[in-house]
Structure formats: structure tokens, C-alpha cells
Amino acid sequence: MKLHSARFALPSFRRSLIGAAVMAFCAGHALAVQPFTVKDIRVEGIQRTEAGTVFSYLPVRVGETFSDEKSVAAIKALYATGFFKDVRLEVDGDVLVVLVEERPAIAAVEFTGTKEFEKDVLVKALKEIGVGEAKIFDKASVDARNRNSSASTCRMVCTA
């Protein structure tokens, strides 16, 4: 019993070859940047972070050649700061455009169930571990702190 029509069946080698060719074509265009000399660098999307901070993490400067390797290094370096939840690089002529979306900052820290503790002591302790008002919100830090708290002590609620 045949499941497929013989006239539409391609040998498996031929299907694999076509699939590999399509993937190679798409992959080549996904990250490929023609190397060019950077005439200017523009940063878009920043609200709290200074442009100078972004520039300091970039592995390329004005006048240097920008390539695929530097593109990958730039994205990794900017993500590693923890300041951004999205980083993209675009090229506009000879201008490198860095597009970022910042992580939210903590607007306020509120405590519930803290009758046994003074608020000032808690705020100081949190600042020592990098959690506080106007700091970049790191959900993992807040979740870890709350997991280690018992219901009789305190829980943190951070609003971004």
C-alpha cells in the first residue's frame, strides 16, 4: 500500500539537500553584516541609562571596522550588564544604531508582616544586595528573597 503519490515523492537525499540549502541561505542572511567603518554610533531606547554607559560596553568605536564578531560581542556585553531586556543592532549607512529596551526600575519597596523588624534596617539590608528604589528590577533576586522568607517574617513587594 502506497501512502504518497509517486509523482510527488522526492528521494530523501534530495529533500535533505533542499532543506539544507534553504537553511544555509536563511542563516547566512540572519546575522551577516558586511564589515564597514563606523562613522557614528547612535543609541535609541534609553530612558534612565546614560548613552556613555552603553558606549563603554561596546567593543567598537567610531573609526573602527564593525563586523559579525563585533556584533555578537556587543549584544552579549550589553545583555551582561543586566540593564536591558532587549538589545538589537542595526546599520544605517555607516552609522551603527544600538536599539535597547531597558529593564524596569524599582519604583517602591513595600513590606508586609514586618512588625518584628524596623523598616530602615530592612531597606539598608536590601540595598546591600542590590535591591532598592530606583535600582534595576531583577525578579530572580526578589523571588529568591521571598522564597527564603517565612510567612511570619516579611515578604517584599516591588513595584516597577
Question: Can you characterise this structure?
Answer:
There is one protein chain. Residues 1-10 and 24-30 have low confidence and may be disordered. The longest helix has 20 residues, at 12-31. By secondary structure, the protein is of the alpha+beta class. It is built from five helices and seven strands; from the N terminus they run H-E-E-H-E-H-E-E-E-H-H-E. A three-stranded mixed beta sheet has the order 2-5-4, with helices on one face.
Question: End-to-end span in angstroms?
Answer: 63 Å
Helix count? Answer: 5
Strand order of the largest sheet: 2-5-4
Radius of gyration: 25 Å
Q: Work out the strand percent.
A: 15-25%
Shape: elongated
- Protein structure class: alpha+beta
Assembly of the depicted chains: single chain
Low-confidence stretches: 1-10, 24-30
List the secondary-structure elements in sequence, H or E. Answer: HEEHEHEEEHHE
Mean pLDDT reading: 74
Number of strands: 7
